Model the fold of this input.
Amino acid sequence: MGYKVCPSCGTRNPEDDIVCKECMADLTGVEPVDEEVEEGANREPEEEIEERTVVISDTLTLLGDGFSIVVKSGDVVGRQGIGAESLRGFKTVSRRHARFYKKGDKWLVEDVGSTNGTFVNDKPVPQGSGQEIKNGDVIKLSSQVALKVKV
Ligand SMILES: [Zn+2]
Done:
């Protein structure tokens, strides 16, 4: 919908009106102004929100001190597993240390018989059972290696 600006008082009138609602001036010769520009500007933010909600990640990122390890469901992290390049120097990390896997939309970590254990927020992960992990949790593979979870 457009509108007509009254030539004598400046009031915005509906585009189909022939006289100004304020001063009764004749509007038959006034060209209607298109409002589309304003409507378009209002529509933009909605599109941005839609794009943001579509992103679903199927990997988990473990942020270490100066390195990061990206794991897929089922990956075993360790000195000879996923992240070996970053973990090789840490003798306290086992060759196969912890397995990360997805169950529904939740991520879990499980210790796979490591020497020094796996800890989530300083609590030991019981062997043979998965411990749920969330964004921001800190996983320790030893006292030397702390990894921050980024889902
Ligand atoms: Zn008027």
Summary: The pocket of zinc ion is lined by residues 6, 8-9, 11, 20, 22-23, 25 (CB under 6 Å). The longest strand covers residues 98-103. Residues 65 and 85 are 13 Å apart (CA to CA). Helices lie at 36-54, 84-87.
